[in-house]
Amino acid sequence: MRRMENLVEVMDCPEGFKVHLVTHQFEKEAKFWWGTVKPRAGESGLTWEKLRTLMDAQYYPRDMKRAKEQEFLRLKQGQMSATEYATKFNKLSRFAPN
What are the boundaries of each domain within the chain? Predict the structure, then answer.
């Protein structure tokens, strides 16, 4: 998802086109999943925030988020180099509690 967020940010994509642009990039399982959740004819479209919420629920279940949050909170440099530690820290920081 982060890659898609970067794509719409770099392209300065208007809010109304974000969902279309991102979902057009879906492949395999994500494409199938989108077919089951996308609005049908006559239904109102999804906002970018709603799509992000749906994708988080699908691909980052609550238990996984909690586990990653705990991993972040317990993270110590230990035997990792500073670069390895910084990389892991940055990767896990999105799961950090507020």
Answer: 2-59, 62-93
pLDDT, one tens digit per residue, over 17-52 is 889 888 988 999 999 999 998 988 788 888 988 998
Q: How would DSSP label each residue in 39-74?
A: PPTTSPPPPHHHHHHHHHHHHS-HHHHHHHHHHHHH
Distances (CA, A) of 76 to 54, 66, 90: 32, 18, 13
Q: Tell how far CA 64 is from the center of its chain.
A: 13
Q: Cβ distance 98 to 72 under 8 Å?
A: no
For the chain, how many residues are written? 98
